[in-house]
Q: What sequence folds into this?
C-alpha cells in the first residue's frame, strides 16, 4: 500500500481478517526494563509506547475493593504492602519479579459476603477524570486503538482467595465462585458505561484472566464451561453491543479453551506463551479464520546478543501469522529487564520488516 494506515484502521482490518499495510505493533514492558533502557538510550521523557510506535492505548477504572494501601515493611531491596485488594504482598522495590503473596483477605465465604462484595459497587470515584481523560484525548487524536482494560474471572478471584482454597471452591462451592465472577463482571460493565458517558470512546475491551500455567489449565474445561464461560459470553455481548472488539489476555497453556473463547465472541487471544506450548503457527492454521492472535514471539530469544535466533523466530512466525490478517505483534508475555534497549530496537525493526503486506 502506498500510504500508511492509522493504528485504529489498521487494527480493525486485522481483526476483521483482512490484510493491512503491515502487522500492528504493541507490547508490554516491565518498569524495571524501562529504567534500564533510560541508561541505554531511551530518551528522557519519552515513553516506550511513543518511541516504538505502539498502536494500542488502554484505560482502566479501579474495580478493586479499594482497601487502603498500607506499607507494612520496607528495606533497601524489598517492600511489603497491604494492597487495595486487602492482600499482603512482598515485592522488590523495582517490582521486577513476581511478588511473594504473604496473605489473602478472603479465608471464607463469609469474608467475601461481609468484607469484599459490599465494596464492589460502581461509582465515579473509580475513574481518573483528570489525567486519564486528558491522556485519552491525546491518544485518540493520534489515531491509536483505544481499549477499556479490566481484570475478570479467575484472575480477579485469586486476588481475594488463596489458589488452593479457590480451586477447592470451584469443585465444592461453585455457586460462590460464580457469584464472585458475576459480581466483578457487573462492576466491570458498569464502570465501562460510566467512562463512556464521561467522555471516553473505546474501540475495544482488553480483559485479563490467566487460566493456565506452563503445563495446562488451572482447572478442567468442564468447570470453565459451567462457571466462567457464561460470564465471558455476557461480557462479550455487552462490549459488542457498544461496537467494541474483545481481547482476552490469558497466560499459560490454554489451547483447550480456544473453542469456548470463539463461541463466547472473543475477537483476539493474547499472549500465546511459547514455553507453555502455545505455538502461533499451529494455532493460526487451526483457528486463524475464527479468532485473531496477538503475541507468540519468544521473549527469551530477545536477550540473546546473537541476532539470528530472534530474526528466525520473527520471520518464521509472522510470515505465516499475518496471512489474511488476524495477527498483531506482541511478545509471548512481557519484556523483562534482561532485554537490552538495542536488542529490543532490533526486534521492532524485524517485526516491521517481516510484517509488511
A:
Amino acid at each position: 500500500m502506498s500510504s500508511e494506515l492509522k493504528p485504529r484502521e489498521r487494527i480493525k482490518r486485522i481483526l476483521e481478517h483482512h490484510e493491512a499495510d503491515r502487522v500492528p505493533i504493541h507490547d508490554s514492558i516491565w518498569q524495571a526494563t524501562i529504567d534500564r533502557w533510560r541508561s541505554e538510550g531511551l530518551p528522557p521523557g519519552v515513553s516506550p509506547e511513543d518511541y516504538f510506535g505502539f498502536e494500542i492505548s488502554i484505560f482502566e477504572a479501579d474495580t478493586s475493593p479499594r482497601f487502603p494501601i498500607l506499607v507494612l515493611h520496607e528495606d533497601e531491596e524489598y517492600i511489603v504492602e497491604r494492597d487495595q485488594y486487602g492482600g499482603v504482598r512482598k515485592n522488590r522495590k523495582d517490582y521486577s519479579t513476581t511478588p511473594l503473596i504473604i496473605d489473602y483477605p478472603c479465608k471464607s465465604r463469609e469474608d467475601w459476603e461481609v468484607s469484599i462484595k459490599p465494596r464492589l459497587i460502581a461509582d465515579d470515584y473509580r475513574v481518573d477524570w483528570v489525567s486519564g481523560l486528558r491522556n485519552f484525548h491525546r491518544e485518540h487524536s493520534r489515531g491509536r486503538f483505544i481499549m477499556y482494560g479490566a481484570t475478570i474471572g479467575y484472575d480477579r478471584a485469586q486476588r481475594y482467595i488463596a489458589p488452593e482454597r479457590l480451586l477447592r471452591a470451584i469443585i465444592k462451592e461453585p455457586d460462590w465462585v460464580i457469584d464472585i465472577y458475576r459480581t466483578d463482571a457487573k462492576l466491570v460493565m458498569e464502570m465501562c458505561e460510566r467512562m463512556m458517558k464521561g467522555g471516553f470512546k473505546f474501540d475495544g475491551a482488553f480483559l485479563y484472566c490467566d487460566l493456565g500455567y506452563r503445563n495446562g489449565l488451572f482447572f478442567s474445561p468442564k468447570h470453565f464451561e459451567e462457571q466462567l464461560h457464561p460470564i465471558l459470553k455476557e461480557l462479550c455481548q455487552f462490549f459488542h453491543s457498544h461496537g467494541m472488539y474483545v481481547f482476552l489476555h490469558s497466560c499459560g497453556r490454554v489451547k483447550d479453551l480456544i473453542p469456548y473463547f470463539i463461541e463466547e465472541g472473543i475477537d483476539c487471544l493474547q499472549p500465546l506463551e511459547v514455553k507453555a506450548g502455545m505455538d502461533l503457527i499451529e494455532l493460526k492454521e487451526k483457528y486463524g479464520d475464527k479468532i485473531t492472535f496477538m503475541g507468540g514471539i519468544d521473549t527469551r530469544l530477545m536477550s540473546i546478543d546473537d541476532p539470528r535466533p530472534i530474526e528466525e523466530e520473527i520471520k518464521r512466525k509472522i510470515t505465516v501469522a499475518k496471512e489474511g490478517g488476524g495477527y498483531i505483534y506482541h511478545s509471548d508475555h512481557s519484556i523483562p529487564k534482561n532485554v537490552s534497549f538495542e536488542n529490543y530496537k532490533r526486534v521492532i525493526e524485524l517485526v516491521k520488516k517481516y510484517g509488511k503486506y
Observations:
- The mean pLDDT is 97.
- The radius of gyration is 20 Å.
- The CA atoms of residues 24 and 314 lie 14 Å apart.
- The domain at 7-63+106-354 is CATH 3.20.20.210 (TIM Barrel).
